[in-house]
Design goal:
single chain; 116 residues; mainly alpha; two-stranded antiparallel sheet; 66% helix; rod-shaped
């Protein structure tokens, strides 16, 4: 049988159950999802942390970034937001791009964060 290691906290000794793995470098979507888990699903977050499965769940970060880029390109094509519009009317182009980015983020949150 393995020998247990203990960590002393004040007057008490707690067993050291597992070594924590460091989190991968996350983009904003990964950080938002992690924050969402910590705030809204604390028990699920702690269970993933205890089982060392948090990194597996956060691997969807790259999928979210790829999906975001695809959504932005699709919405730009649908709304005819291109370099020509940028040259003609910069303020309208900026407004459209901000709207597109916000729509893409909202769609991502509905697809990935609110579902899980």
């Amino acid at each position: 049988m393995k020998e247990m290691k203990y960590q002393q906290v004040g007057d008490y000794e707690f067993p050291v159950l597992k070594q924590e793995e460091s989190l991968p470098n996350l983009t904003r979507f990964g950080r938002m999802y992690l924050k969402h888990l910590k705030e809204n699903y604390k028990a699920h977050y702690l269970a993933l942390l205890a089982e060392n499965k948090l990194n597996e769940v956060l691997s969807m970060d790259h999928q979210m970034n790829d999906r975001y880029n695809v959504l932005v390109k699709q919405l730009m094509e649908e709304r005819s937001v291109n370099e020509e519009l940028k040259e003609k009317d910069q303020m309208r182009w900026v407004q459209e791009m901000n709207n597109i980015k916000n729509s893409a983020e909202e769609t991502l949150f509905d697809e990935f964060i609110n579902v899980r």
